[in-house]
Amino acid sequence: MTAEELIKEYRRGRRDFAEISLSGLNFRAAILPEIDLHGSNLRGVDFTGANLTGANLSRSYLYESICRSAILKNADFTASDISWANLTWANLSGANLTKCDLTTTNFSGANLIDANFTRANLKATNLRSTNLKNAILIGLSTINDADFTDVKNLSDSTRTYLHTIAEGNHPFTKRDTKDTLEGKL
Description:
Elements: H1 3-11, H2 156-165, H3 177-182
């Protein structure tokens, strides 16, 4: 299925596109709220500026996807591989990222208010300048090599928990994870 065909079907009222392969397609600025793409291959898909509010993206493969400035409010990414993805300046408020692989994902500047990261893998994740107000960061598999420079609204209790499991340096910014949590640069 091409991007154009999916958008056409969506406009006709179809919402269920589960377990489909859309690898490498361009959905820039597409308006697809409540779309169901669970279990899909979305590797390298470009969702820059797209509106996927309330989308079901659980168990999907979003490796190297581009979601710059995308609206992903209340989207469900449960158990998805979002590693090496670009989510800079995306709005993921209320998103469910439980059990996601977020290895080397770039969230720089993203809105992560009320996002749920329970049991997620945040290895080498870039969280610089994100808003983590009321974000759930518990039971994480790792935050090794992550960068938390200038995060906003991280609670003291969460910061303390993260500090106890933090190790290493981010592979690109070269910043020590513990130092970024403490505000030392």
